[in-house]
């Protein structure tokens, strides 16, 4: 192989290759901090009814923690799937930077919603 052909081959190998998007959209992470969860209230009462047992804190990267332990999640596009830990199997739809709505197994929206309450505190 000539030096020129070798050089051209190396240049082609060094070119950036476009990444294929993950199914469901690009992979991302949620903003760090505590997410407080609630169910909708009713006309005669409060706007939301707190569900502290569903609260979680996003720590670093794709990790979260609850009083029951730590785990990981996967954010693809606007879908959040908890893949390990105490809330493994839970799914949420991201409807804003800090707002998540539970998604039921059949894909329909659930009643539970979680809102980021603030940054990460140790």
UniProtKB/TrEMBL annotation:
Q: Which one of the record's GO molecular function terms can you name?
A: translation elongation factor activity
The signal sequence is 1-21
Keywords from UniProt, A to Z, are: Elongation factor, Protein biosynthesis, Signal
Report what the protein is called: Elongation factor P
């Amino acid at each position: 192989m000539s030096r020129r052909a070798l050089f051209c081959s190396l240049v082609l190998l060094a070119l950036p290759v476009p990444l294929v998007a993950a199914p469901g959209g690009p992979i991302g992470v949620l903003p760090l901090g505590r997410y407080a969860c609630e169910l909708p209230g009713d006309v005669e009462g409060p706007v939301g009814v707190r569900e502290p047992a569903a609260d979680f804190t996003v720590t670093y990267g794709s990790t979260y923690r609850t009083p029951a332990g730590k785990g990981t999640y996967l954010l693809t596009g606007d879908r959040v799937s908890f893949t390990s830990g105490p809330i493994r199997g839970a799914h949420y739809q991201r409807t804003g930077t800090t707002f998540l709505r539970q998604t039921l197994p059949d894909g329909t929206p659930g009643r539970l919603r979680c809102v980021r309450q603030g940054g990460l505190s140790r």
